[in-house]
């Protein structure tokens, strides 16, 4: 009979072994036997806890996504301000945090993205993650600009984060997280500065009331 309290330890151990195996051999050659050997357990343990390789891959991605969500929350709570620019920057920094850019995690992310195109359960995880990022970004941009502008700015920043991360993951020299963060920061500054300038050219509230915009009547 397993010792009380061993299950969380075993699960974490196997998730770490999965990322290590993907790092070393790629997803196609990451077999149950290889993961078990890396973790120093029997293959039956993996079947017992996860039902097989597919279940273990899903659990591994849930673990990485949970770490990302926790990192975003921790950085935002530490700000002590509701300033949109600060929160947008914190979200960017969290996506390039050490927990998301280690070699094993990056290779697992890449394997996850590729596999999610063929597995509904992983695709759902991917969509949840995408929507969470977009929603967080849009909420902050909305503090400075109309809804449609905020939506476009959020889509742009989300695409920029993913693109910078992906290019870094595939680059022979690896990801330069600091440079990627600065590029994303420049995008945020550009959007917020443009929004401030646009506010100065908009009609007064009285004029806007007489001539409602598409934004106000949509």
Automatic annotation (TrEMBL):
Binding region for DNA: 31-50
NCBIfam families: betaine_BetI, PRK00767.1
Ranges for region Disordered: 196-218
Gene (name only): betI
Pathway in which the depicted protein is active: Amine and polyamine biosynthesis; betaine biosynthesis via choline pathway [regulation]
Domain of life: Bacteria
Function comment: Repressor involved in choline regulation of the bet genes. Repressor involved in the biosynthesis of the osmoprotectant glycine betaine. It represses transcription of the choline transporter BetT and the genes of BetAB involved in the synthesis of glycine betaine.
Keyword set, alphabetical order: DNA-binding, Repressor, Transcription, Transcription regulation
Organism: Larsenimonas suaedae
HTH tetR-type domain sequence ranges: 8-68
Protein name: HTH-type transcriptional regulator BetI
């Amino acid at each position: 009979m397993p010792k009380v309290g061993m299950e969380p330890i075993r699960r974490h151990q196997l998730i770490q072994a999965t990322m290590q195996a993907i790092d070393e051999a790629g997803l196609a050659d990451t077999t149950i036997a290889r993961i078990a050997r890396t973790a120093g357990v029997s293959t039956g343990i993996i079947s017992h806890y996860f039902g097989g390789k597919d279940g273990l891959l899903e659990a591994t991605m849930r673990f990485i996504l949970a770490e990302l969500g926790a990192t975003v929350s921790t950085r935002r709570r530490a700000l002590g301000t509701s300033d949109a620019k600060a929160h947008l920057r914190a979200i960017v920094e969290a996506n390039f945090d050490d927990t998301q850019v280690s070699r094993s995690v990056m290779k697992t992310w890449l394997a996850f993205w590729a596999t999610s195109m063929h597995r509904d359960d992983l695709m759902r995880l991917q969509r949840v993650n995408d929507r969470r990022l977009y929603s967080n970004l849009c909420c902050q941009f909305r503090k400075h600009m109309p809804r449609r502008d905020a939506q476009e700015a959020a889509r742009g920043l989300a695409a920029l984060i993913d693109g910078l991360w992906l290019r870094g993951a595939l680059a022979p020299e690896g990801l330069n997280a600091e440079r990627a963060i600065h590029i994303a920061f420049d995008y945020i500054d550009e959007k917020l500065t443009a929004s401030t300038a646009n506010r100065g050219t908009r009609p007064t509230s009285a004029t806007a009331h007489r001539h409602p915009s598409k934004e106000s009547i949509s």
